Amino acid sequence: MNPSPFGEVELIARLARIFGAAPSEVVLGIADDCAALDAGGPDYLLWTVDTLVEQVHFDLAYTSLAQLGRKSLAVNLSDVAAMGGVPLYALLSLGWPPDRDLAGVLEFGEGLASCARDFGVAIIGGDTVASPGGLSLSLTVLGKVPKNEMLQRSGAQVGDLVYVTGPLGEAAAGLEILRRGLKFAPESAAPLIQAHLNPQPQVAAGRLLARENLATACIDLSDGVATDLMHICRLSRVGAHLHAADLPIPPGVERVARMVGREAMELALQGGEDYQLLFTCNPDQESRLPGFFSQAGLMLPQRIGKITPGKDVVLISDGEEKIISGRGYDHFRLDLVKSLD
After folding, report:
1. Would you state the CATH architecture of domain 8-146?
2. Is the confidence at residue 328, as pLDDT, over 50?
3. 7 in a labelled binding site
4. Is 140 annotated as a binding residue?
5. Is the pLDDT of residue 72 over 90?
């Protein structure tokens, strides 16, 4: 397989040009976490879809089918959270290898159902097919958000502050433990492994940010801070400075990084699958964050940087500046993907 001359972002942009302009009732189409549709009434409808492929997104050597079921829905709910929405319904398309026991589908379904119950989502239909090339699945989630509250990637302004709702790099570190079979104290390994196998979509935090008008832009961290913040910057026509000393990197992530000969900063910025929310906040609203998050029983978000003029995402570490724009997970750029192997 040869590296593509362009990456995932450019591929999506080229497809968007092929598909042409969306009809007027589509408020948001390609380029945000969800598509938004105005079907009348006080809310926009939110649609999102995510696909998981065996040996790309998961490995059944260390992921149970029940865990996969939960995660497959959770990653979609994270997209709805990034829009400030409430998830409502889901459709499942499942490609199951014909040489595997169909009882596994039921185990997968139990995990999917448990996540759906936790977030009040109804599984209302879908499709099943034989998949000789390995297990694959796709979930489509429908949600809603009040029209005057929807969060987007495109609202960041120069001077806004950059925040994340939780720790960075845990999922990437957990994957390293599982994939390499690292010897790690169970009590230290557990939160990292759980971050990879059982991500927690920040639906409550997303609703809070939207309802209280605390965020100017928002995205969920699926591909890593470096890539996902660049999405906000590109659509908002701004740049950003990140401060390495402010990144919430847990000690366990730092230890795993040392064990595998990588930098903890790399896991935090490029590892992906944290499924926290990265958002920008007007400085005038910053003082409101602690009270609202504490009252809701949520972890206080961490400020990690600032929106700047220009177009690059710049990491400031020990007084040095380094452009890191786009250095995250990309399905079609092997030069970037190999750095995660």
Report:
1. 2-Layer Sandwich (3.30)
2. no
3. no
4. no
5. yes
Give buried/exposed letters for 154-180 (b at 16+ CB in 10 A, else e). bbbeeebbbbbbbbbbbbbbbbbbbee
Tell me the pLDDT tens digit for each residue of 120-146: 999 999 999 999 989 999 999 999 999
Residue 155 labeled ligand binder: no
pLDDT tens-digit profile of 277-309?
Answer: 999 999 999 999 999 999 999 999 999 999 999
Q: Is 33 annotated as a binding residue?
A: yes
Does the annotation place 222 within a ligand binding site?
Answer: yes
Strands 313-317 and 239-243: parallel
* 280 annotated ligand binder: no
Give the architecture-level CATH label for domain 161-340: Alpha-Beta Complex (3.90)
Asked if pLDDT for residue 334 goes beyond 70, the answer is no
Is 220 annotated as ligand-binding?
yes
Write down the pLDDT at residue 167.
98
The reply to whether 341 sits in an annotated binding site is: no
What ranges do the domains of the chain cover? Answer: 8-146, 161-340
Find out whether 32 is annotated in a ligand binding site. no
DSSP for 230-288 reads HHHHHHHT-EEEEEGGGS---HHHHHHHHHHT--HHHHHHH------EEEEE-GGGGGG
Residue 99 assigned ligand-binding role: no
Could you tell me the pTM of the whole model?
0.90
153 labeled binding residue: yes
Does residue 286 have a known ligand-binding role? no
